[in-house]
Each structure stands twice: as C-alpha cells, then as structure tokens.
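To assess whether the prediction recovers the assembly geometry, we first specified each molecular entity separately, as shown.
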Amino acid sequence: MSTHPERTEPTIVRTVAELKAAGRELLESAAAAGRTASLGLVPTMGALHEGHARLIAQARAENAVVVVTDFVNRLQFDDPADYERYPRVLEADLAVAGDAGADLVFVPEEREVYPDGRPRILLSAGTLGEKFEGASRPGHFDGMLTVVAKLLHYGMPDPATAAATGYRVYFGQKDAQQLAIVQRMVHDLDYPVEIRPVPIVRSAEGLALSSRNQFLSDAEAEAALVLSRSLFLMKERAEAHLPLAPDDALDMIASAPGVQLDYFEVVDPSTLEPLAFNCAETPFTGEALVLVAARIGSVRLIDNMPLRAD
Amino acid sequence: MSTHPERTEPTIVRTVAELKAAGRELLESAAAAGRTASLGLVPTMGALHEGHARLIAQARAENAVVVVTDFVNRLQFDDPADYERYPRVLEADLAVAGDAGADLVFVPEEREVYPDGRPRILLSAGTLGEKFEGASRPGHFDGMLTVVAKLLHYGMPDPATAAATGYRVYFGQKDAQQLAIVQRMVHDLDYPVEIRPVPIVRSAEGLALSSRNQFLSDAEAEAALVLSRSLFLMKERAEAHLPLAPDDALDMIASAPGVQLDYFEVVDPSTLEPLAFNCAETPFTGEALVLVAARIGSVRLIDNMPLRAD
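The predicted structure of the complete assembly is given in tokenized form:
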C-alpha cells in the first residue's frame, strides 16, 4: 500500500453523517484509482503523542483511507473531575494526525455521540473489566467498550460503497487490557472488522511513551525505567526458554527508589487469567503477557510486554 | 419490490461463513438483475407460526434477499429446563419459512454461535431489561440482546459486495419489550441497520398468536380473549381522544374466569416508563403502548397495543 505522496491537512468532520459521506467518497476515489479500497480507523481521546502517531502511520501504510477519531468519552471516566481536566488540544492533535497521514479527523460534539445522554444499552466487559486497571475504576471498561462499539459502526464502510474491501481498527498495545477486551468484544459479538494491535513506542532508555511522562521529575523518570527493565528481563528469559522467575523482577522494582508497585502479573494474553504453569520453576514456552502498574511520586504508569517462545 | 415468482425450498446454511457467502451471491445476483440489492434478516428461535410467517412475508416484500435465522439461544433462558424443552421442529420451520418466501435459513450449531461457551462480553439492557418480562427472568434481555448483536453482524452485507443497498431486520410487535430494547440498542450503539416492526397477528376472535395458545383448553382460550378485548377498549378510547381510564380494562380482566393478571401498564413506547399524564382523567393524545401479561390456567400469555392519537 502506498504512503501519501504529499502531506496535506486532514479534513475535520464533526457529524456521523459527514464522516460516512467523506469516508465513502475517499473509498470510491481509491477504488476508481485502482487501489484496494480499505479503511483504517484509529480511535483516540486526543492529546496525541508519538505512540498515537505510530498507530496512525501503521493505518496509513495498510489502508487507502485513514480516519482518526478524537473524542473524550465521558462514559469511561469514573471520576467527573478527571474527565473535566482531560487535555483537549485539537490544534496540536490535527498536526500530529496530519503528519502521520490521517485523511479525516472525526471530532464530534458530545451530543452527536450521546444525543440522549447516557445510553440505556451498554456493553459489559464482565470480569475482564473488573481486574487490573478496572479494579480501581468501576465502569471504565464498560464505558470504553460502549464508545468503541459505536465508533466501529460509525467507521464501518457502507455496503453501498462499491468495492470497499477491508476495515481495520488500530489499538496500541500500551493499554493491553483495553486491547484484550476490545479483541474479545469483536470475537464474542462478531464485529466484521479486523483489530490491528500496534506495539508500544519507547524512549531510547525504554520508558513506554505516555502523556503522563511529562509529569515525572528527572529523578522519577530515571526510577521509572525499572518498569521496562523488569519487563525486558522477563522477555529475555522467555526467549531463552528459562523459567520466568518473576520474583527477580519484583526485587528489581522493590529496590528502585520511590516506585510503589500496584501489580506485576504474568497472564494469559486473551483471558488475562494467571498462567496455569509455575513461572518460578517451569521453563517458559507458549504465549503470555506481563502486566505492570506502579506509582512513581504522584504519577501512575502502566507498561506491559508480550512473551512468546515456541 | 417483487415477490418470488416461484416458491422454492429455502437453502439451509449452518455456518457464518456459508451464510455470508450465500448472502453475498444472492445480493450480487439481484444487483446483476437490476434489482435493489437489499437484505432482510428475520431472527427467530424456530417453532415458527403464522406470526413468524408474517415477518418473513414482509421481509420478502421489501427485500431482494431474505434470511431467516433459526437458533434457540441458550443465553436468554434463565431456566435450563425451559431451554431443554423449548420446541425444535426444523422440518416444520423450513416449510413455514419456505412458504413465506425465505431464501436462506441459518441453522447454526451452538458451537458456531458460542465457540467458547458463554461470551465474556455481553450487551446489557440495563433498567429496560429489569421490568415487565425481565422482572421474573434475570439476564433474559441481556442474553437476547447479545445474540441479536451477533446475528446483526452475521447478516450484515459485506462492503465488498457491490451494490448492497439496504439492511433491514424484522421483529414482531408481539414481544413489545424485546422490540423496544432492540430498537434502543440499534439507536444507542449506532448499528447500521433498519429495524422493521411487524404488527401482531390475531385469531378471528382477537387472540394474539403464540405457540403457547395450543396449551389452552377451549374454556381458557375463551377466557383469554379478555386480554385483547381490554386492549382494543384502550385503542378505541385513544383514537376517540377520550381518557384511557385503564381501571375499566382492569375490571374487565378481573371479571374473566381463571385469568390471573400479572401486569397491565400504559407506558412510553421507547422508554417503557409510565406515562407522565393522568390516564384516568386526561383526554389521550400522542403515543403510548399498553402492555398486558396474565396467567390463564398454567399458560402465561402476553399481549400489547400501540396507541396513537394526533
């Protein structure tokens, strides 16, 4: 699939009707030009950083049409104050989205997405949404799934569009639990869409990019590196078919100054349940996911690492 | 839209892949023949009677391709014994579906719909699913919505199918709460589909058709007529712009031998909340829905009537 020959400003669309009309027009142009008329959707809550840019760039590389959605979803905030102070920086977002290759940026008013206020029918993430990040945020993943279910329908190519031949939706691996739950929704409810996970973007030292990193002091940023170091230790052991022995990683984290561990777990990537084998003693084989969350000063960070050894 | 020139046996499809392939082929044939390539989906749990036939016939009249789904959805039964004894009469269903004009009948094995057993991600009907029929059947409407969400995706025309130009899904008005909840799901989650409600089919005396009517004795069937009579009384008053005065209808039902009323309520058709005006004294205007449920001997029956007066 080609990249854009020339970077242009993305088009802002504000209503679902505009989004569908503009998406259809772009798909039809692509088909008319003999290209594979697929659409890539990148759902975001704005405040775009390099991690989002990677999502958009991958969507650009794989699809004729790229749509970024930029909407702060009230439904997934359990704390109204947190919702109110969530950054809204549309001008900066448009620059990031445009540089990364978005064609359309969907920036709806809240009443466009929730015309009747809180929806009466919601998605329920069940027990998958009650652990890890969901443990302290009741309703968060139900609210996330509900807006994703809506956004998937907004972006879905209309069958009346001749020759649309693919629909892919991009999520970052950084929010591993969100990704697992969305993949499960698409599987369980048979959404006709392909979910494309995009790897975490890290600083040169290994810190997973996050809009929250800006709140770390230099010393805290240094201390935070223990999170990715502990994950890379697990990855090395997995790929060497050694026992993961997570206690060593836990010791590393415990020895870092000012790092308060929330959780560090080795789980099944799709069910997020603890692995059935003894990580301390059994040589690693198969697939797993290591999840970590910690507070460093006043900043809470999450990170994770997929493990695989055949 | 034309009716079928000649009645043929419907094609049985057993997997989602077969359903999608067969649906696509029929849509493409219709488009090639210059017809409007729309698809009508009729979700059922089988045990088809004249009420279902009416749904299928309406889908036939409005669409180039008609798909009936015939699947007893374990997820919406709160009582496993009730699930086990639910009638499964595929041969008879095929005759009804074929006579009414179905092209395809989707008859999946349970493992096709629920390959991993109970889904982890469910739809939640919220408070709409907790009243009336939901009051005595916890989880019923969540399970119904979840399978409908899946079926809507199964039947959805593939954008790669050139010229598919409509997707309609048919539900009977008999199950008024189910219809209201499905309409709310499509609205709240923006399913790209049109829900088409189909009016209740009644016997000459007025009894709403139901597979349960066969369990009524002659005397019980006579007594059961009070339900539709009470509803038609409400309809006459609504259309005459009189107060509905539901106490009169309640008196009628109370005087019928062996009829144990469960509920009789005048509600808002979309929220199922009680009407905001005084039904006893205020002349009727606008829209409403009357819901009734009663036990007659060992048989529980439901019926309802939409009211409208401009």
